[in-house]
């Protein structure tokens, strides 16, 4: 490890102990060493014993920086896995991270725009509306049209901290890969690389602006999801301007109920939004924690989701999308044989995997969860069991699916909060069946032909020349193959001849030794000379063949 990595690891350990987070370790023999070390390193004592554990965890993650705050945000959505005193505190990491100075935010914005904010905006509020791990939000009014907008600016000097944590994650992933061979199927280095790519994507607000515009266009005429408008003329790499929205944060259940929101329909539409983005558009919001999701105040009986912060977007290639849909449907239909076969056919497990045993292992994990409401099912526990199954069958984690898995966990966490009785299976199954049917119907074939027609039309005049070139290359290839075969036959004959004379030489040499030992005159010398002559001829034959 490099000196900077060692220093960062020490800093993480120091924060961990200063906030007394060793209390999270289970009481068992394996944890005696950390407790012993805690007693020995007396200067790293708990300096916040006046605070509850959940608050200490939140403050520790916040002090460690963006990478750890993101981790806390994800944990905050899994109230089925963590007690409320921890989940409630972690939820504050979604948009209530300690802000940086508003005057510094103004300076950064003006530097990005190349002039004073008052040139383009009125009513700029130096007090942030929200503050998260990567960026901070301020409000203003756009001068050109009087519309209320939000100004988003990247936190200053966070890049070195993020890079240090990413480097440390790479180092730990390589150590795990080297010393724990069974962990290689989870591709820890590739997973860290995918996480790094997505994290650095959040630092580029021009990318977020483009993603937001695309997602807004995808749902332009759809009432289930609203994406705010982006004013791209004012956007820069570290600065972004978009429409200000008013809505109820999806985690504020009291306000949602007070507004008369149809909670069942809202939860079902959350699932619909997810599957629509993945399968219809192949462009899905991959950071749907409650800090980025609101619900419109309007028409509560026909609720509409509002999505913010589109910096992290996931996509799948056509093959993965098809396999994923077929896997979901096979799961919903309890066709575990097909699930096992799809994993083998897609290359997610080795092709020599015993399909019968794999099917049985999947059945053991999945069968108990069917027929239960969402309140009785924990996808976290199911995924844990599936990972254990994956390890036993050398299943490789697909880095391109990591974002999808994370987003699915977010959706489940939101659905559990909004309407615990939601039947995820019955909500998702009709959508997937309809999507699959559209992929197989004649219209889908016609669309493929229509999409490729311009390319085919462009290449059509070249077709005769391409056919002629292919035939010519085929003839040339046949001539080369014939020549190679002729050379092979000649070389094989030469090798056979050389082997024959090597054998003759060896036989004559043995004969010469026997004759010499029996004191026969002249013949041993003649036999030995002939043996050497045979070997010399064999050597010349081999060299000629080479």
TrEMBL record:
According to UniProt, this protein's pathway is: Cofactor biosynthesis; ubiquinone biosynthesis [regulation]
User: What UniProt keywords apply to this chain's record, in alphabetical order?
Assistant: ATP-binding, Cell inner membrane, Cell membrane, Kinase, Membrane, Monooxygenase, Nucleotide-binding, Oxidoreductase, Transferase, Transmembrane, Transmembrane helix, Ubiquinone, Ubiquinone biosynthesis
- InterPro entries listed in its UniProt record: ABC1_dom (IPR004147), Kinase-like_dom_sf (IPR011009), UbiB (IPR010232), UbiB_bact (IPR045308), UbiB_kinase (IPR050154)
**What molecular function terms (GO) are annotated for this protein?**
ATP binding; monooxygenase activity; protein kinase activity
Q: For this protein, what is the EC number?
A: 2.7.-.-
Q: Where is the ABC1 atypical kinase-like domain?
A: 93-343
Q: Which residues form a coiled coil?
A: none
Task: Sum up the protein's function in the record's words.
Answer: Is probably a protein kinase regulator of UbiI activity which is involved in aerobic coenzyme Q (ubiquinone) biosynthesis.
The name of this protein is Probable protein kinase UbiB
Please tell me the species this chain comes from: Candidatus Enterovibrio escicola
Q: Which gene encodes it?
A: ubiB
């Amino acid at each position: 490890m490099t000196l900077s990595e060692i220093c960062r690891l020490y800093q993480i350990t120091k924060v961990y102990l200063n906030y007394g987070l060793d209390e999270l370790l289970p009481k068992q023999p394996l944890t005696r060493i950390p407790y012993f070390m805690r007693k020995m390193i007396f200067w790293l004592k708990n300096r916040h014993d006046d605070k509850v554990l959940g608050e200490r965890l939140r403050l520790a993650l916040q002090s460690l920086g963006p990478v750890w705050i993101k981790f806390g945000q994800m944990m905050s959505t899994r109230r089925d896995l963590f007690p409320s005193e921890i989940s409630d505190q972690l939820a504050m990491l979604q948009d209530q991270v300690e802000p940086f100075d508003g005057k510094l935010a103004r300076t950064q914005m003006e530097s990005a725009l190349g002039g004073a904010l008052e040139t383009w905006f009125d009513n700029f509020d130096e007090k942030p509306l929200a503050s998260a791990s990567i960026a901070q939000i301020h409000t203003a009014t756009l001068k050109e049209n009087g519309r209320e907008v939000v100004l988003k600016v990247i936190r200053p000097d966070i890049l070195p901290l993020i890079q240090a944590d990413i480097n440390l994650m790479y180092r730990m992933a390589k150590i795990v890969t080297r010393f724990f061979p069974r962990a290689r199927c989870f591709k820890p280095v590739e997973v860290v690389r995918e996480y790094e790519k997505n994290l650095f994507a959040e630092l580029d607000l021009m990318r977020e602006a483009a993603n937001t515009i695309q997602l807004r266009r995808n749902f332009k005429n759809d009432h289930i999801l609203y994406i705010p408008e982006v004013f791209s003329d004012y956007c820069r790499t570290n600065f972004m301007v978009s429409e200000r929205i008013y809505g109820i944060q999806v985690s504020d259940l009291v306000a949602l109920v007070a507004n008369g929101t149809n909670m069942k329909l809202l939860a079902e539409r959350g699932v619909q939004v997810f599957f629509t983005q993945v399968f219809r558009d192949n462009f899905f919001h991959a950071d749907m924690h409650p800090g980025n999701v609101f619900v419109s105040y309007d028409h509560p009986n026909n609720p509409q989701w509002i999505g913010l912060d589109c910096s992290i977007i996931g996509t799948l290639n056509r093959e993965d999308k098809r396999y994923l849909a077929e896997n979901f449907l096979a799961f919903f239909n309890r066709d575990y044989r097909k699930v096992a076969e799809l994993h083998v056919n897609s290359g997610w497990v080795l092709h020599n995997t015993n399909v019968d045993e794999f099917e049985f292992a999947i059945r053991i994990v999945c069968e108990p969860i069917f027929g239960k409401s969402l309140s009785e099912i924990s996808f976290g526990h199911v995924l844990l069991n599936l990972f254990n199954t994956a390890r036993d069958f050398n299943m490789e984690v697909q880095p391109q699916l990591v974002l999808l898995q994370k987003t699915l966990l977010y959706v489940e966490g939101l659905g559990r909060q909004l309407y615990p009785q939601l039947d995820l299976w019955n909500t998702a199954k009709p959508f997937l069946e309809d999507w699959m049917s559209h992929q197989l119907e004649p219209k889908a074939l016609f669309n493929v032909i229509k999409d490729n027609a311009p390319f085919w039309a462009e290449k059509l005049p070249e077709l005769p020349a391409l056919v002629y070139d292919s035939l010519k290359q085929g003839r040339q290839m046949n001539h080369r193959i014939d020549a190679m075969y002729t050379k092979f036959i000649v070389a094989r004959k030469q090798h056979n001849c050389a082997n024959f004379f090597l054998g003759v030489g060896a036989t004559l040499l043995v004969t010469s030794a026997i004759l010499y030992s029996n004191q026969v005159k002249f013949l041993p010398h003649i036999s030995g000379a002939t043996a050497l002559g045979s070997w010399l001829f064999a050597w010349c034959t081999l060299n000629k063949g080479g």
